[in-house]
Design brief:
The complex is a heterodimer. By secondary structure, chain A is α/β, with parallel strands linked by helices. Helix content of chain A is 36%, strand content 18%. Chain A is globular. Chain B is mostly beta strands. Chain B contains two helices and eight strands; from the N terminus they run ααββββββββ. The chains are: A alpha/beta, B mainly beta.
Chain lengths: 402, 129
């Protein structure tokens, strides 16, 4: 299969203008507070979020479920997560599958639920994500397994270090400033202060970010998303079924995914994330939309620099202008395109496997007009961008208000 | 690290051995079974250039447990003269004097210890020239 002429090899998967299956809806959502949930176990956290989602959706059963988790094995020594969660949610014997794509596990789990409903195979599917990171595991080591163990991590790099190298290259190439990175953290903490489920509900000042402990130059502690416990779940069903349930729902108009080299050093560019631009191009094509049609987005700001690079590669800003956009308020609520109204990973918290599903939840809340103080006015289209590792995988969804 | 896993990587880590595609000439480091450029599966073993330059770098202030006694230390992405890129520590330097574009050469060094009684693990680091 691989011995074909170079010209015959598609650079990436077939780009269908629109998925030929059924229209898919998100009808109920639930999440735990994100943070240090000392009294709750991995399974408690997942079940709490899932019960909320099931209750809010009004469904009386689920046909199957997907659970996004980066590393139950390393964080709490538990694998076979699908079965554990189906058991404790009390829904066995429904099919239950754990989905993993490092920090993009939640987005990937949602995408599997989307496919299962779109294909007509199931009517009601639960897509959830969960991580328990504070039970004593070495979190730095566990997270580093999302990078190349043999050729990056072996030599002493950490995740903040990988994104720091992206930051330094971006600052060198585009004159992005240290202050512009800090503006991302200030904005996301401000947004998170309005989110009752956020881990950090305290605003931070530019000066606090600029003087925070250095972790990996040029990234400081307040450039980094925290270590968190948390769970998030949504109910996915067909639009036809959602109409019968008579509950608020949003429509999924695009689901796209892409991958790139596992090692940062093997990428074509150190200042762009190709997995993001490739998945975005597919998503916009599926939805028949342009970047300017999107009203707000939840993006994977595991580090401040990630939000800057991602907002460029999603086409919201010209390449190299993402830092200026954060600084001049274009990405604030009320700006050109509000980014991470939930507080993002930075302030809401980043229980790795739950993050992608929590992004879908913020879109649902915004598009159904339930985002409270952080509501984006007249929002019709919301985009979620969930990323694994230093950009080796990316999952993008676009949701539409109905 | 169990020894078979360590041993498998020795040619790459000790001698910078890479796979050069017989069809398109692209050099993969570490060696792969499929060329990422032209998808063919035929390679010859070559040794990488020992000289190159720093494309980007960071100074690790908070390190993983294995490296926590070595902080602060520099990790860089280096482009070697044959175009191959890799991630390596920059050793024997004032961490504040490292710059993008700086020329380096690759040297053989101990990278980490496997606990108190395990393997000494070796590989490549860079030094400024």
């Amino acid at each position: 299969m691989l011995n074909v002429e170079r010209s015959e090899i598609p650079i990436y998967g077939e780009m269908k203008s629109r998925f030929a299956g059924r229209d898919v809806a998100v009808i109920g959502v639930g999440m735990t507070k994100f943070g240090e949930l000392w009294k709750k176990s991995l399974r408690d956290i997942f079940v709490e979020a899932s019960l909320q989602a099931i209750e809010n959706s009004g469904v009386d059963h689920i046909d199957s479920m997907y659970v996004g988790t980066m590393s139950g094995g390393l964080f709490v020594g538990q694998e076979h997560i699908g079965a554990v969660m189906a058991d404790y949610l009390g829904v066995a014997p429904v099919p239950a599958t754990r989905v993993e794509s490092a920090c993009a596990s939640g987005g990937a789990a949602f995408r599997q639920a989307y496919f299962e409903v779109a294909s007509g195979q199931s009517e009601i599917v639960l897509a959830g994500g969960v991580e328990k990171m504070t039970d004593g595991a070495d979190v730095t080591d566990a997270l580093a397994t999302a990078a190349d163990q043999e050729y990056e991590v072996y030599n002493g790099i950490t995740f903040p270090g990988l994104y720091a190298m992206i930051a330094r290259a971006h600052m060198h190439q585009y004159k992005t400033t240290r202050e512009q990175l800090a503006h991302v953290a200030v904005k996301n903490h401000k947004n998170g202060s309005m989110n009752p489920n956020a881990q950090f509900r305290s605003p931070v000042t530019l000066e606090q970010v600029m003087k925070a402990t250095m972790v990996a130059d040029p990234l400081r502690l307040l450039d980094c998303s925290p270590v968190s416990d948390g769970g998030a779940a949504v109910i996915v069903c067909s639009v036809d079924y959602a109409k019968q349930l008579k509950k608020p729902y949003v429509k999924v108009v695009a689901s796209a995914q892409a991958s790139d080299t596992i090692a940062l050093h093997s990428r074509e560019s150190l200042t762009a994330l190709k997995c993001v631009s490739v998945a975005a191009e597919k998503a916009y094509k599926q939805a028949g939309l342009k970047p300017t049609d999107i009203n707000f987005a939840e993006v994977h700001d595991c580090f401040t620099i990630a939000e800057i690079v991602v907002t460029e590669d999603l086409g919201f800003f010209e390449k190299g202008k993402g830092g200026a956009a954060a600084e001049n308020g274009s990405t604030s609520i009320g700006g050109k395109i509000p980014i991470n109204t939930s507080g993002g990973l930075k302030s809401k918290g980043h229980p790795v496997g739950a993050t992608g599903v929590a992004q879908i939840i913020e879109c649902y809340e915004q598009l159904t007009g339930n985002a409270g103080e952080r509501q984006v006015k007249n929002a019709k289209y919301g985009l979620t961008q969930n990323m694994g590792g230093s950009g080796a995988s990316c999952v993008i969804h676009i949701l539409e208000a109905v | 690290m169990i020894s078979p896993r360590y041993h498998r990587e020795v040619p790459q880590r000790y001698r910078l051995e890479a796979g050069k595609c017989k069809q398109c000439g692209h050099i993969s480091f570490p060696p792969r079974l499929v060329c990422p450029k032209c998808k063919t599966k035929s390679f010859e073993t070559v040794q990488l250039s020992r000289e190159g330059k720093i494309l980007t770098f960071t100074i690790i202030r908070v390190g993983p447990d294995k490296f926590s006694k070595e902080t602060p230390y520099v990790v860089a992405i280096i482009e070697l003269n044959d175009g191959v890129r890799l991630t390596a520590q920059v050793a024997d330097c004032d961490v504040n004097k490292v710059e993008i574009g700086a020329e380096v050469k690759m040297i053989f060094r101990k990278i980490q210890d496997e606990g108190k009684s395990g393997l000494h693990c070796y590989g490549y680091k860079a030094v400024l020239v």
